[in-house]
What does this fold into?
Amino acid sequence: ESLPDALARRMNLCLLSKKQQEAFENNKDLDYALTLDSREAGIQTRFRANLIEHKNGISGVYRIISKQVRSLEELGFPNSENIRKLLTYHNGIILVTGPAGAGKSTTLASLVNELNQKRQEHIITVENPIEYLQDSDQSILTQREVGTHTSSYQVALKSALREDPDIIIVGEMRDLETIEMAITAAETGHLVIATMHTRDAYSTLTRILDVFPARQQNQIRTMVAGSLRGILCQRLLPSLSGGVALACELMINNNAVANIIRDGKETGLDSAMQTGRKQGMRTLNESLDALVEAGTISEQVADENRPHIEK
It folds into this structure.
């Protein structure tokens, strides 16, 4: 049963700072992270929150963020060692993709944690909002939030390059300018890890390339072919046990993939990934088949999530 709007409004807005209230009033929606920390009440929980205005008033969604950053194995990646190998590079770009609510931020936090523990580098993250709060370990870790610590991804990326980072984490790549700056950073000796809202490796590549005007296509294809390290696509599916199961696709940029990107022959990507199994590549279809075989998900769920076109 829905609450009366006056009560829903009070409950949602009382948690906001003055600046957040103004942002919500201006934009009619707000995405932010909220920490409830009360020793007296014995509460210490962090949430990813989203507020919207709709025809009946105000609505808020609050997702609990786990206190512990989990390892790739704990998150359910069967190919964690192949993913870990991508983290050994000192330059290039790694993309973590999937639809909204697929756990990209959780995977990103896991990758940052791995780098923070194993490498002595300067890591800068740009997130909107910061979900997992992490402290410096072996690395110096600087976390910046869009809207709080910087006005936009573009501004933060521009200044990041002047702060001598070794690794740059980009919470989301959406527009041409952010994508271009991330690829340039990857080419100039930084390891860049970024997320995108794309379904699989094929749609990720086409999204990146199509965002550029025709006159830049050849140049950008050469840059992506040279700087891309890998694309990790994930989605969370309803499991037969009532929980969720992780399905993932991993494309690693080898010579065959680089030639496909350079020559604009993306239709050959699927067969290149099947041929690249020895290097740890894995298609979404293979992941779905393995989950069905293990009795984790139903055939129906697998079929609903297969790519529309066999590429």
Remarks:
- The CA atoms of residues 69 and 273 lie 30 Å apart.
- The chain has a mean pLDDT of 92.
- Residues 104-118 form the longest helix (15 residues).
- The first strand starts at residue 29 and ends at 38.
